Amino acid sequence: MSLPKNIVRLGEFEWRIEPWYFRGMLRPARIFVGEEELERAHADGALRQIAEVACLPGGVGEALAMPDIHHGYGFPIGGVAAFDAVEGIVSPGGVGYDINCGVRALTTPLTADEVRKWVDRLADALFSGVPCGVGSHTRESFSDDELDRVMRDGAGWAVALGRGFGEDLSACESEGAVEGADPRAVSATAKERGRNQLGTLGSGNHFLEVQRVAEVYDPDVAAEWGVETVDRVTVMIHCGSRGLGHQVCDDYLKLLRAGGGDWPNRELVYARIGSPEGGRYLAAMAAAANYAWANRQLIAHKVRGVFEKIFGVRPDGLRQIYDVAHNVAKFEEHVVDGRKRKLLVHRKGATRAFPAGHPDLPERFRPLGQPVILPGDMGTASYLLLGIPGVLEKSFGSTGHGAGRRMSRKEAVRTLRGRKIVEELGERGVTVRWEGRDTLYEEHPLAYKDVHEVAAVCEGAGLARRVVRLEPLAVIKG
Asked: Which end of the chain is more exposed for a tag (fewer CB within 10 A), N or C?
């Protein structure tokens, strides 16, 4: 690869974009990818996007892109940027439309052989019990007062109603509720969209997946998480804040654009953190994030009910490994140039990977470090990784959030239409249930990057360490 002089190779999986790469850059950008993916990120416009992020005022350190970088709205998917908590900005395009889209992982006492005997019945029950697809909703419709409680209390709201356990909260980022949420900052339209969508997967790349442990890299950490045995069955839930979060993002993009400003582009509209508009967006974003944690909590409760009915496993037998957010902006303290500073860290398609001892980790995870969930495509694999020393200095404690798309949805449908995807997955030992005409084409493994490579780059770049590899047995897609 012939590199322009303004892109400098720092290591096998690390590159710096100098500030003269793009007019208006106020600081460098750093990319954690292999050479082939750097070329792809350049071709799809993602490098330009992270350079535009480096144009935003009040930034601290470098603008960053994780190993699953690809073109997104505003920030590239895989974009991370930190801003001074007093003088910096907040950008809805640095969080995204699906606020607190994230992943929850559960472990079970079952083996893959035990599940395979009943896999069709299990897939049918999960597909029936957890609504999925565009506009999916449940029969429950919550009042304004109840929705306000959801947006304030997050996963704790559901646990208080008996839909989960206190142990679930201690295995959630921020214990399942981010501070600063104010339901009054959420529009009536957003609340209406979210009123009957709690406990639903939605569409796109969201999924509910039953998996098996295929390989163990770190037996001691895996044992602590309950996944030390090959063929142990796990469950992964990937979804976010549904229509409520989407509307919050849309509302504030329109509000901030109406005020005018000098932005790198219309997708990177921003507000000063201390401004009334910035404060309202942060309050609404936190409310939507808490809605997402409540959503995943309700889905986990439904999954536990299905496993109890089919396998006789008590609900507390499905223990939560962890729940991470990967579309959110959070206030954190980081050491920069030798002094501790309070920053607002945007992670768009990226997740925390805090190391052992970090005070923001739930207490039970501080001795070893944070579990990192890296989902792949529906036919290949996913990974559990561990936050490691050095990641705070390297990436504000951030790493990749998944395989990352290689094709747009339209391109995937155009390229893959006509393939017998159900049969292809069946040959790999994967049972699938889905909603939507083109879902399986959009979500085909060829539409995604190689998750094995992404996990290897996360480890090789010093962002996280592999603990176990998981392979799918049954997949529910929206």
From this structure: N
What pLDDT score was predicted for residue 134?
A: 86
CA dihedral 194, 195, 197, 203 (to 10 degrees): -30
pLDDT at 1: 60
Q: What is the C-alpha separation between 186 and 203, in angstroms, rounded?
A: 23
Rounded Cα–Cα distance for residues 64 and 72 (Å): 14
Burial 396-421 (b: 16+ CB within 10 A, else e): bbbbbbbbbbbbebeebbeebeeeeb
96 CB-side CA count, 13 A: 27
Q: What is the pLDDT of residues 275-285, one digit of tens each?
A: 999 999 999 99
Number of H helices, E strands in the chain: 16, 19
Residues sharing a CB contact under 8 Å with residue 223, sequence separation 6 or more, in sequence order: none
Q: What is the pLDDT of residue 135?
A: 84
pLDDT score recorded for residue 2: 65
Q: For the chain, how big is the Rg over CA atoms in Å?
A: 21
Distance in angstroms between the alpha carbons of the first and the last residue of the chain: 39
Strand partners, 11: 14
Residue indicated by tokens 């999954």: 303
Predicted local confidence at residue 436, as pLDDT: 87
Q: Low-confidence residues of the chain, pLDDT below 50?
A: none
Active site residue 401: yes
Cα separation, 417 vs 237, in Å, equals 27
pLDDT digits (tens, 9 = 90+) for 71-115: 999 999 999 999 999 999 999 999 999 999 999 999 999 999 999
Which residue reads 């996990």 in tokens?
455
Q: CA angle, corner 174, sides to 209 and 71, nearest 5?
A: 60
Answer whether 350's CB lies under 8 Å from 66's CB. Answer: yes
DSSP annotation string for 214-257: EEES-HHHHHHHT--STTEEEEEEEE--HHHHHHHHHHHHHHHH
Determine the residue type at 14: E
As beta bridge partners, residue 79 has 65, 348
Nearest to 227 by CA among 236, 93, 306: 236
Q: What is the helix (H) or strand (E) element at residue 175, kind and residue range?
A: none
Distance CA 349, CA 97 (A): 11
Looking at 238, 401, 444, 452, which residue is catalytic? 401
DSSP string of 365-427, one letter each residue: GTTTB-EEEE---TTS-EEEEE--TTHHHHHSSEEE-SS-BSS-HHHHHHHHTT--HHHHHHH
